[in-house]
């Protein structure tokens, strides 16, 4: 986790907690106030990619909130952008990976628009149980790319996602 500079502390303070959304017992972290503040958003994007600068060619963002940070990170780092989408959202998926949900199975897909061996930094807003990010790592590998690491805005440690993901290069900006 990076040093909490005044800009990052301010950015973290903009994340609102919403009880019982999207269902009873869930504490949702609303990042839209952070996104609305240009300085906070920039500080957050810079903190997401700082440990990885020079080690990636592509930034992959996971649907949906991961897209917001990944696109800004790719632009900032002069890297390509890869959307990792839920099943059925891409017109020509090149690869797909299933992963388990609490009540079933889901799938992520991506295109193969980059040269084999491209180094990919995966970005999402939150690491919870780790299933989606672990599937994204498998997807990157299946496409012939190399994972340069994983960056998330925050981690909910009690849900065990770090163990599921098993990425020694996992980087979180804020405590969950």
Automatic annotation (TrEMBL):
HAMAP family assigned to the protein according to its UniProt record, in alphabetical order: Aden_phosphoribosyltr
Gene Ontology MF annotations: adenine binding; adenine phosphoribosyltransferase activity; AMP binding
Gene Ontology annotations for the cellular component aspect, listed alphabetically: cytoplasm
Function recorded in the entry: Catalyzes a salvage reaction resulting in the formation of AMP, that is energically less costly than de novo synthesis.
Localization per Swiss-Prot or TrEMBL: Cytoplasm
EC class: transferase
Substrates-to-products reaction catalysed: AMP + diphosphate = 5-phospho-alpha-D-ribose 1-diphosphate + adenine
Provenance organism: Leucobacter edaphi
CDD domains documented for this protein: PRTases_typeI
UniProt keyword list: Cytoplasm, Glycosyltransferase, Purine salvage, Transferase
Protein known as: Adenine phosphoribosyltransferase
């Amino acid at each position: 986790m990076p040093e909490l500079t005044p800009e990052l502390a301010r950015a973290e303070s903009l994340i609102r907690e919403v009880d019982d959304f999207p269902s009873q017992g869930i504490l949702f972290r609303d990042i839209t106030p952070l996104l609305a503040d240009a300085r906070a958003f920039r500080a957050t994007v810079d903190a997401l990619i700082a440990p990885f600068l020079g080690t990636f060619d592509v930034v992959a963002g996971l649907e949906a909130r991961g897209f917001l940070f990944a696109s800004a990170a790719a632009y900032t780092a002069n890297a390509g952008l890869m959307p990792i989408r839920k099943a059925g959202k891409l017109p020509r998926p090149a690869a797909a990976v299933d992963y388990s949900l609490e009540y079933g199975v889901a799938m992520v897909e991506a295109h193969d628009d980059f040269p084999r061996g491209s180094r990919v930094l995966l970005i999402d807003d939150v690491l919870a149980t780790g299933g989606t990010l672990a599937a994204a790592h498998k997807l990157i590998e299946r496409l012939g790319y190399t994972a340069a690491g994983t960056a998330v805005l925050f981690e909910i440690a009690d849900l065990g996602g770090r163990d599921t993901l098993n990425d020694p290069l996992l980087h979180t900006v804020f405590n969950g």
